[in-house]
Amino acid sequence: MSAGDAVPLLSIRGLTVQYGHGRDATVTAVRNVSLDIPPAGIVALVGESGSGKTSLANAVLRLLPAAAGEVRLNGKDLLTMGRRELREARRRVQPVFQDPLAALSPRRTVLQSLMEPLTHFDIGAPRERDRLAADALSAVGLEPNLLQRYPHELSGGQRQRVALARALAAGPELVVADEPVSALDLPLQHRIIERIQALRERLGVAFLLVSHDLSVVRRVADAVAVMYGGRLVEHGPASRVLEHPAHPYTQALMRAIPHPDPNHAPPAVLGGEAPSLLTPPAGCVFHKRCSEALPECVTREPGFSATGDGDFSPGGHRVRCHLWDR
Ligand SMILES: Nc1ncnc2c1ncn2[C@@H]1O[C@H](COP(=O)(O)OP(=O)(O)OP(=O)(O)O)[C@@H](O)[C@H]1O
Ligand code: SF4
Ligand SMILES: [Mg+2]
Question: Which pTM value belongs to this model?
Fold first, then answer.
C-alpha cells in the first residue's frame, strides 16, 4: 500500500504563497504545491535555505496568507474557515519552531507554559490540568522536577522538548515542526528525532518535519518532499526518494550528506547559488545548477512525472524533471 491509499489527514492543493517586495515586485516563495499528510504520518519537507519551506509551513498554520490553494484538514479547508472552526483547527494542528526561547515566555515556569494550551483550548477539568501538563512533559522524556523551572534554567535540548510538550498538551493530530532540531548539536538532534518517532507511534500524531538537512529527517520520515526555488521538485515514499532519488537536485542533496566513515569520500557540495525568486529563471528552476540539463530545460518548465514505481498520485513517487517526461 502506498501512503496515498490512506485518507489524508491534511491535504495541500495548489498552495501558493507570495510576498510583496517594494512596488509591484512579488516574490512567489511557494508555487502551486500539492502534498498529503496521512494520519500519524511523518512527512519531511527538505530543501536549502530560501526554498520556501517556512513559507509553506506558516501558510498551513495560517500564520501567513496564501495567494492561492487549499489546505484541507480532514476535508475542511483551513484557509477559508471561520473563527470558531479555526480555533479548533489550531488545537489540532500545533506548531513547533526552531527557537524554543521565542516560543516559551522567559517569565513562565515550564508548568505555566504547559498550562497555557490546556486553559486556552479548555482541555480537561481545571484540577486535572497539573497532571495533564506532567503527562505531556513525560511524553517527551522529561522528569516532573523540571515543571517549576524557567526556560533559562534548562539546556537547549530540554527547552526544545518543553516546546514539543507544549504542542502535545493541546492534543494535536498534526505537529508542524519548522527546523525543530537545527539549533542543537548532532547527538541531541538524533535524540529528539527519535522522540518524534516514538510520539507518532504512541500518540498517533502526524508530523510535517521541516529541515534543510536531509540526514536528520531521513531516519524517521515516511515520505519526503523536496523543495527548490518555491517548487516541489520531488515527492514520494521515503524509501523511494532516499534510495532512488530521481531529481538531480535531490541526488545532489544525497551526495552532500557526510558519510559516517571518515575514510569514505568527502561529501560533494552542490555548487552555484539558489535562484532569485524575484526574477526566477525561465524553464526548469534548477537548470543553472544542473549537470544533466537538456536544451528544453532552459525554456520549458517541467511538470510532474511518475518514476519507476508508476504511481502518479500524491502518494506515489513524483518528480518534476524533463529527464522523466520522455
Ligand atoms: N517576510 C518576508 N518578506 C519578503 N520575503 C520573504 C519573507 N519571508 C521569506 N521571504 C522570501 O521567501 C523565500 C522563501 O523563504 P522561506 O523562509 O520560506 O525559506 P526556507 O526554505 O524556510 O529557508 P531557511 O532554510 O533559510 O529557513 C526567500 O526568498 C525569502 O527571501
Ligand atoms: S528539468 Fe532539466 S534542468 Fe531541471 S532538473 Fe531535470 S534535467 Fe535538470
Ligand atoms: Mg525556514
Answer: 0.94
